[in-house]
Amino acid sequence: MNSTIKQLARFSFIAGVVFTSFSCSDNENNDPTPVSETDKVYALGVGVTTSTATTNYVVQTSNLMSGTISLTGNGLLQSGYRDYAFGGGNFYSIGGLGITDVNTISLNSSNQLTTKTGLTFELANNDFIDPTGAGTTMVGVSMPSSPTAGLNAKFYTVDVASNTIASRADVPMNSIHPSNRDWLFHTGMKVRGNQLFQTFYPVNHTTYATTNTDTCYVAIYSYPGFALQKVIKDTRTGPAGAFNTQSGIFKTETGDLYTVSNSSYYNGYSQSTKPAGILRIAAGSTEFDQNYFFNTDAAPNGGKIAHAIYIGNNKLFAAITTVTPTLADRWSDKNLRLAIVDLSAKTITLVANAPVFTGNGGRSFAALLDEGKVYTAISVNGVVNIYQTDISTATATKGAEIEGSFLGGIARLK
Amino acid sequence: MSKLSTWHYIKYTIPFKPGFYFFFLLLLVCPKVGQAQNTGSVSGRVTDAGNKAIEFANVSIRGTEAAAQTKADGSFFLSAPAGDYELVVSFVGYSTKTARIQIIAGRTNNLGAIALSGSLNMDEVLVTGKTQNTAIKEEGFNVTVLDARKLYSTSADLNQALNRTTGIRVREDGGVGSNFSFSLNGFTGRQVKIFLDGIPMDNFGSSLTLNNLPVTMAERVEVYKGVLPIHLGADALGGAVNIVTRANPNFLDVSYGVGSFNTHKASVNGAFTNPTNGLTFRANAFYNYSDNNYKVEVNPIDLSSGQKAEKSVEVERFHDAYKSGTLQLEAGVTGKQYADLLLVGLIASGNDKEIQTGVTMEQVFGARTSRSSSVIPTVKYKKANLSVEGLDLSLYSAYNMTQNRFVDTTRLRYNWYQETVTTSAAELNRTQLKNKDNEGLVTANLSYAINPVHSLSFNYVMSDFGRKSSDVEDPENVTFQYPQALNKQVMGLAWQVNKKRFNATAFSKLYLLNASSFQQVLDGTGTGSYQAIQTKTSNIGYGAAVAGFLLPQLQLKASYEHTYRLPEAIELLGDGLFVRRNSALKPENSDNVNVGAIYSFKLRTDHHFAVEASYLYRNSRDYIRLDQQQTQPIDRQYINVGDVITNGVESDFRYSWKNKLQVGLNLTYQNIIDRQEFYISENFMGTKTERNWGYNYRIPNTPYLFGNAEAGYSFTNLGTKDNVLTLNYSLNYVEEYYLTPHHLGFNNDDVIPRQAAHNAMVNYTLQNGKYGLSLECRNLTDSKLFDNYLLQKPGRSFFLRARYFINK
Lengths: 414, 808
Fold this sequence. Notes:
The complex is a heterodimer.
Chain A: H1 2-17, E1 42-49, E2 54-61, E3 68-69, E4 76-78, E5 81-87, E6 90-96, E7 100-107, E8 113-116, E9 120-121, E10 127-129, E11 137-142, E12 152-159, E13 164-172, H2 173-176, E14 183-192, E15 195-203, E16 216-222, E17 228-234, E18 249-251, E19 257-261, E20 277-281, E21 293-295, E22 305-312, E23 315-321, E24 336-342, E25 347-350, E26 367-370, E27 373-380, E28 383-390, E29 395-402, E30 406-412
Parallel strand pairs in A: 3-29
Antiparallel strand pairs in A: 1-2, 1-30, 2-4, 5-6, 6-7, 7-8, 7-9, 10-11, 11-12, 12-13, 14-15, 15-16, 16-17, 18-19, 19-20, 20-21, 22-23, 23-24, 24-25, 26-27, 27-28, 28-29
Chain B: H1 2-13, H2 18-29, H3 33-36, E1 39-47, E2 58-61, E3 67-69, E4 75-81, E5 83-90, E6 97-103, E7 108-115, E8 143-147, H4 158-162, E9 168-172, E10 180-184, E11 193-196, E12 199-200, E13 218-225, E14 239-245, E15 251-259, E16 263-273, E17 279-290, E18 295-298, E19 313-316, E20 322-334, E21 341-354, E22 369-383, E23 391-408, E24 412-414, E25 420-422, E26 431-449, E27 454-471, H5 478-481, E28 485-498, E29 502-521, E30 529-551, E31 554-565, H6 569-573, E32 579-580, E33 588-603, E34 607-626, E35 636-657, E36 661-674, E37 678-683, E38 686-691, E39 705-715, E40 724-734, E41 737-738, E42 751-752, E43 755-766, E44 771-778, E45 786-788, E46 791-792, E47 797-807
Parallel strand pairs in B: 1-7, 11-14, 32-35
Antiparallel strand pairs in B: 1-4, 2-3, 2-5, 5-6, 8-13, 9-10, 11-12, 13-14, 15-16, 15-47, 16-17, 17-20, 18-19, 20-21, 21-22, 22-23, 23-26, 24-25, 26-27, 27-28, 28-29, 29-30, 30-31, 31-33, 33-34, 34-35, 35-36, 36-39, 37-38, 39-40, 40-43, 41-42, 43-44, 44-47, 45-46
């Protein structure tokens, strides 16, 4: 209302002086909230849907557990659609209008968010990871969404300190998955030693039909050279991961790799021919471990794992379906519960006090592991709240309200 | 010349036949018995110097409300209380004539022939919008009539001309031929309909859009805000623009101009009518070309490192050339027993366009192109007094065959320095998309004058649209194999009352839609099958408009309409892949209210003032938008979203002195507020409630405050008699606005900065406008102008134009 009055005043002023140039300041008195040295600082990528579009903002908070996280006069606008990644103290906001650019967001000396720009990728990015946790080099991959957009997968490393691309390599898409019927979509990647492991699923790039759901695939590349070494397959479950997710493969502290398959209609599959399940590539090996299979469909509290992050000690923090997905609800990403998945014990524990929810359409799972707790966001009746899950007790606590439509990414910067 | 326009319309809906004048007089005179004895009348005939009748000339008795337009034989008839008056006779292109007359009670004073002397170009000064003669804008509709004749000496296209009108913002991406969005009081896209002589031309291809059409093609352009008369039958949510082509029976208008950025514009317009047998030929031809190689400020990306430059640099656009050409031919007869007008015509048009940028200037292309061609046969038929006196019919129809192509096949990526790196498929997405559109269009208007006061009219508009797409680069795409089709019919019935100081109309419209498409049926095998689907809808809209003169110089008008914008086939039924059917989808609807006042007066004899102010209210609901909540690549749905309230004010001020000095000023403020608090989407994903974080805030990325100022001065009889030198200056102003909701975020940099574009023109005409030479400068101060976020428009540019014009 205030702004209306301001506008009316401005209007009448202009009408009066007739086109004389004048200047007016937007008095948004937004002195940043001071952050004390002992405070933690989290960065949140928040999407806001209004009648005309969805816009994205990165906002900081020191308190995830109470109050509201508001964007009114607060937060850094991120143009276009955005995905988020974390590494080397930077919260990366990747996307933009037309081009794929990267806003590298970190804290300045007064612990306020500050943005470094300049880094761009030539194709839309699918995944951007800190492969070792050292925070010195990031690894990214861009896969063309169809042969009309490109014929090569593009891998690159980014030097964190200079915020520039350090190396890049092209891998022909049809060398990874030779097929005249299917294209392939990236679903996750991990670096182990001098190799990079990538999960993908075959899909018709035009109709998004998945007619090949009998096999789980992992492509293995040299690292950091990104030369394709081989693609390993296993037919005990379907492809790992799903459309627009990065939850296909996880690495443990000891170097075991786990692939997570769901072939879930809710995440875009058009058929489902194998049980949802988890396979292992043991440390030191580049083949599937034939002695390990975790059928998550059949397990107690089980279902299809749509999204997950690795939380240490052979455990995943996951969003898992509570009912069998139906084809009629393809793409809906719904009927999800939070769960803790023990990969070695092959158990699934539902997180208590967390409601059934609908994912935000398959974008990367915004969840943060911090000091034994996992922070993620759930929307109930249009109200988005942080939920803090205590890993040891598998119990959730409802936290701060986010005044936005969805949480797209979360990281701790301090 | 708004005077012409509105009456022109009335002309074929309410014919003022001599017989009716009698009734008309009776009706007007009878209630005022006391005055009746004191009333007399005057009649006469308006001709040109060669004694040829002038139709549509404006005749009025100064100091009274008596005003009329001459009929085909040049005759007029006016009545007024007895006394001594000044009779004013004017017609565009001719000098205005005044004569002292005497009206004697109970008698008709026949003045005989009044000859107007030759074509005088003093009217052709660069002042747009309404003329001083407000008395003629009789209808209650909020209509702005842009007199295109006044712009014939400029190189302006219709977009540039309309952009100076209140309520209108044309937002262009770049230079000549660039993409644009036309917005009228905040409504954009298909919510505003564009007509060519009453035929909807929304699907006429990209070479027949408002930015391609030169002003010389039009006689006038009518802009209806919010409320549409039924003769423009369409499912427009927020108004319409109707381009009325030139109707002079005999003329030739040839022009050619050249300007900055290697811009060339040529046009030939002409008509020939054989006075003995009524044979008529009309032609419009025009050609536009520009390299659009203006300079822009960008942050180029280094293709080898992928780094975007920190400092901006000025570069020249290098892949933005545009050319378009159109030929419109019509032949037929006028003034026959069976037809007042019967014209068969053909429009052939095409364009070729290089694409320089994507959604912002950060995305650069060096090889993408698009092309369009249209062939449109037309038939126009008009007959007054069809079998019954007072029953008039007009029938316009067209068949539109348009092909649009889009090509991206170059395996290179460009940056602003025109450096390239090779790519594996295309610049962005390999395509040779071909869309073939076929559309049948029929517009019929039938009007019947029950008596001089009351009349009825009926309008019928049918459009039948189908598209076939193909792409040799993507032949498997199922959406190409399963096309959509859409048939729309709009019928309107209106009742009109015309009294001396007051007129009113009430109308109702029926909107019928029949759409067909295909939908995918998944069966768990992965691929599924397709089945044809069809849907029919009907909606009823209604409205009314009133206008009246409170004082002879003060007119008040008000109008209201409840209107619909019907969904497109893809919105309703999907395309079988990317978009899924939403059988619950409703048409967009809006309640539109306009209230306005026009006041004009004179100080002494030479100073004319006209002030117009209007208030408008819109409550628009159920906008059709692709569901933002769904992020999957396919199977998305169009949903109804939105409850938007617009409160706007528009004002227009004009001043002229002795037909030499003209000053105009207008300002538009529109407060467009999002009133949707929650989104409750009931789609196949179930019911989902989401808060709208734009609730109670202004809709972003929409100009809300803008205006124009113009001043012109004409030096007459310069050098020799009948030579005129005109100097013009104009300013186009738009207040800054933001791409995204501005209340969210801090220090957002997505500003579309305040625009102040100064333009100047010098125009010199010889021999009453037969020869003309003009020099224009746009964006005089070389400001960085933006209509859209990060899409810079041209800097300072010059244009020199020569014109030859004869009118018989």
